Amino acid sequence: MMGVMSIRDAQNAAADSGLDLVEVSPNAEPPVCKLLDYGKFKYEAQKKRNEARKKQKTIEVKEIKMRPGIDEHDYQVKMRAMNKFIGNGDKVKVTIRFRGREMAHQDLGMKVLDRVREEMDEQVKIELLPKMEGRQMIMILAPR
Questions:
Q1: Rounded distance, CA 64 to CA 58, Å?
Q2: Where are the alpha helices (DSSP H) in 1-144?
Q3: Are 61 and 140 in contact (CB under 8 A)?
Q4: What is the four-CA torsion angle of 111, 115, 116, 122, rounded to 10 degrees?
Q5: pTM exceeding 0.70
Q6: pLDDT tens sequence across 91-104
Q7: Which residues, other chains included, contact 136 with Cβ-Cβ below 8 Å and sequence gap of 6+?
Q8: Which tens digits make up the pLDDT trace of 33-72?
Q9: Stretch (H or E) spanning 98
Q10: Residue pair 124/86 in contact by the 8 Å Cβ criterion
């Protein structure tokens, strides 16, 4: 802490100590400056940014595709995969694809999605309720 001083005195003090005069807070009254090695300061700031980027988790949307007449064993395999994805912190998009005459029985697809919703209720929140998009019915689940 050197107190309030003129710019010229601060620059001379920086030159005497072999450091740089860096303005830390330009909007303060009076502006706040520090004597430090600017190259080292930039290097440390870059390291902090890289470390923060490493620690952040990117959330992916994983897709599980089913059919309205899915068999029990196939359904259980899909549910295990869904549990794994939710456990890893990813969102899951459940897609029911209708082909041919199955379009007349959309209630079967809705029953499958209702069953998924009931079984996953404690672990997930429903981000997008079941809705039709062309020949597909989709629902998006996100971890709690």
A1: 19
A2: 7-17, 38-55, 72-87, 106-119
A3: yes
A4: 140
A5: no
A6: 999 999 999 999 89
A7: 95, 96, 97, 98
A8: 999 999 998 999 999 999 988 888 778 899 999 999 999 9
A9: none
A10: yes
